[in-house]
Design a protein that fits this description.
There is one protein chain. The chain has about 170 residues and is an alpha+beta fold. It folds into 2 domains: about 45 residues; about 110 residues, D-amino Acid Aminotransferase, Chain A, domain 1 (2-Layer Sandwich). The protein contains 5 helices and 6 strands. Strands 1, 2, 3, 4, 5 and 6 form a 6-stranded antiparallel beta sheet that branches. A hairpin with a 2-residue loop joins β4 and β5. α3 packs across α5. It is globular and about 50 Å long.
Length: about 170
């Protein structure tokens, strides 16, 4: 599985809406995946989205399910700004996690951008956490990246679920 498709050339952005451009983007994405040894079963075409919040639930061998919340994209990697909590979590806990991020001002509407509805965002993240708990012991990780937030509009743009291996 390829977790970060952009790093292998597996994502094409701002593709013009014509058959030739879409076909070329498809060929480039599938070739990039094949070069990594991945089989491509399908390709997702969706509207261009920017920004967002990253959510990841991981099963730690000692702590169990852990929720990681961060600003999406390069922020989580470059700024190393994320917050962890053991699962399950309430929306109040998630709201406090969001407020404790060093980049919280981005969510609050920095430099004239639209502020996120932090209570709605916290509720969505808590419900995704409930889903992770409900998926049971076979869940290894659930990653939503990005969880696009524009005011009160919240959209999961991409998600990856991995399962523990049964020997």
């Amino acid at each position: 599985m390829i977790m970060h498709k952009t790093e292998i050339g597996g994502v094409r952005l701002d593709v013009p809406p014509d058959a030739g451009a879409v076909g070329e983007a498809y060929r480039a994405v599938t070739a990039a995946a094949r070069a990594q040894g991945a089989d491509v079963e399908s390709v997702l075409v969706s509207p261009m989205r920017c920004g967002g919040t990253e959510l990841r639930v991981v099963r730690d061998p000692h702590w169990g399910l852990m929720l990681a919340v961060a600003l999406g994209g390069v922020f989580v990697e470059v700024l190393q700004d994320s917050v962890l909590a053991p699962m399950p979590v309430s929306s109040g806990q998630v709201r406090r996690m969001l407020g404790s991020l060093r980049g919280a001002a981005v969510l609050e509407g920095a430099r004239g951008s639209e502020p996120a509805d932090l209570d709605a965002l916290a509720g969505v993240i808590a419900r995704l956490g409930d889903l992770a708990v409900a998926l049971g012991e076979s869940l290894e990780s659930l990653e939503v990246n990005p969880l696009l937030v524009q005011g009160a509009a919240i959209e999961a743009v991409d998600a990856v679920v991995t399962w523990t291996r049964k020997d």
